[in-house]
Amino acid sequence: MWYSGLKIKTFRTGGVHPHEYKGLTEECSIINFPVPQKVIIPLSQHIGKTAKALVKKGDMVSEYQLIGQKDGKISANVHSSIPGKVVDVVMACILNYQVLSVVIQLEGEFKTGNLKKDEWEPLKKEEILKRIESAGIVGMGGAGFPTDFKLSPPPDKKIDTLLVNGVECEPYLTSDYRLMMEKTDEIVEGIKIVKKVLGVRTVFLGIELNKKKAIKKFKDRLTSESNIHVVPLKVKYPQGGEKQLIKAILKRQVPSGGLPFDVGVIVSNIATVYAVREAVLFQKPLTERVVTVAGTIVEKCGNYKIRVGTTVSEVIKEVGIHGPIGKVIMGGPMMGINVSTVEAPVMKGTSGILFFSEKEARSIDYSFYKPCIHCSKCLEACPVNLNPSMLSILGEMEKWEDMKGYHLQDCIECGCCSFVCPSRRPIVGWVKAGKALSA
Predict the structure, then answer these.
(1) Both 132 and 274 in a single domain?
(2) Which residues on adjacent β-strands are paired with residue 46?
(3) Residue 117 included in any domain
(4) Has residue 5 got a pLDDT over 60?
(5) Is the peptide bond before 238 cis (omega within 30 degrees of 0)?
(6) What pLDDT score was predicted for residue 62?
(7) Eight-class DSSP state of 255
(8) Which of 9, 52, 368, 420 is the least crowded, having the fewest Cβ atoms under 10 Å away?
(9) Residues 277, 382: one domain?
(10) Cα angle at 360 between 355 and 365, to 5 degrees?
(11) Candidate from 91-105, 155-169, 385-399 with smallest mean pLDDT
């Protein structure tokens, strides 16, 4: 094999091996999802403050028009994904919480074909960052951190390495994989743009070994790029976690309560790097993304380029569902969110929409849990060396402040503990509550 003799890297502490289910969509090329007749666009699709609404009910908007202005340094612009009429600006249920959202009815013409390509090499760092900021680019791996802010670390933090995350370790999800297979040159160009902004010399692209075609494709493409290295990684969840990726590739340990820039590293997801290129070369806002739609009850599983604001109900109409739906998850099954309404929209960070039957939903239902039996399986599985057992016990007792003493804030909410727990305890749920209620 072409990778024979290569040292396959990984993180050492914890981790699990859930069934991958990648075969449902990994060979499905990206196709454009039909334009929806209505979109619900949240003004908070990112970490930080909600964007300020710039439109009101009755306004006409064009595609790519700014409808939400970033509010402060840690915030992000929001743009319309379709031309049309604003039928409401309202608090809407988004992933089970209420967010100020703009509802737009389709009307008018699209601007997609009018984008003109610029050269990025002559642009200064500040000009590139301004385009990224203007386009509302955020981390698309799930966290949603504003990219312009992430690429502007504090002056006292010396950044020497860019890690590009092509791991996609969540089961079912293959949207990043299809991007890597179909947009290889564009991703490499995006990497070079981010590399210039950070002023770093070295770049590592981490890809799990279950994506051998992508690894080979990038290795072939990067033969003339001496400072961009492809790193094959062992298939283990959560290999794509920032701290686990840094540990696996660079052997650096992000300190408790710290961030990657504390060890000289910036991590960026594949889809984010691609979106950066679109923003810098075409000044295109982040109004659509590739989403894996999958599940055993889905008739047309695939990878779809879907406009932000498209509702789950619209997705259901297009892909077809056979049998009753037991659960819908936005994201992957390990860290994704079970949505309570099919009117929940696709957002900038939506990597997948997964549909499960009622029988499958019962098998991943953590609401009927039992007492902790102190088996220590969760301790063995935790990739950040925490004591999930104690966190769950304190959470169950609602002793939120006491959870801080067990490094509550260091939990990355990967779900490994709940996955291995024989008592089916909703450990991550208690952790999330603890973080919110002990802040």
Answers:
(1) yes
(2) none
(3) no
(4) no
(5) yes
(6) 95
(7) P
(8) 368
(9) no
(10) 100
(11) 91-105
How many Å apart are CA 283 and CA 279, to the nearest integer? 4
Q: How confident is the model at residue 90 (pLDDT cuts 50, 70, 90)?
A: very high
Strand residue runs (E) in 52-166: 52-53, 60-61, 66-69, 78-79, 84-94, 97-106, 161-165
CATH code where residue 242 lies: 3.40.50.11540
Domain boundary among 261, 282, 303: 282
Interval 59-65 mean pLDDT? 96
What pLDDT, on a 0 to 100 scale, did the predictor assign at position 364? 74
Confidence of residue 74 (pLDDT cuts 50, 70, 90): very high
b/e for 24-57, b at 16 or more Cβ within 10 A?
bbbebebeebeebebbbbbbbbbbbebbbbbbee
The residue-averaged pLDDT of 170-190 equals 98
Q: What b-and-e string marks burial along 103-139, b requiring 16 or more CB atoms within 10 Å of the CB?
A: bbeeeeeeeeeeeeeeebeebeeeebbebbbbbbbbb
Residue matched to tokens 């860290």:
335
Which strand (E) or helix (H) includes residue 206? Answer: strand 202-208
Expressed as residue numbers, the domain containing 143 is: 123-282
Compute the average pLDDT of residues 65-86. 97
Distance in angstroms between the alpha carbons of the first and the last residue of the chain: 51
Euclidean distance between CA atoms 299 and 296, whole angstroms: 8
Amino acid at 152: S
- Please state the length of the chain: 439
Structure tokens at 21: 């289910």
Q: Give the count of domains, the chain.
A: 2
3-class DSSP assignment, residue 257: coil
pLDDT above 70 as % of the chain: 97
Q: Is the pLDDT of residue 6 over 70?
A: no
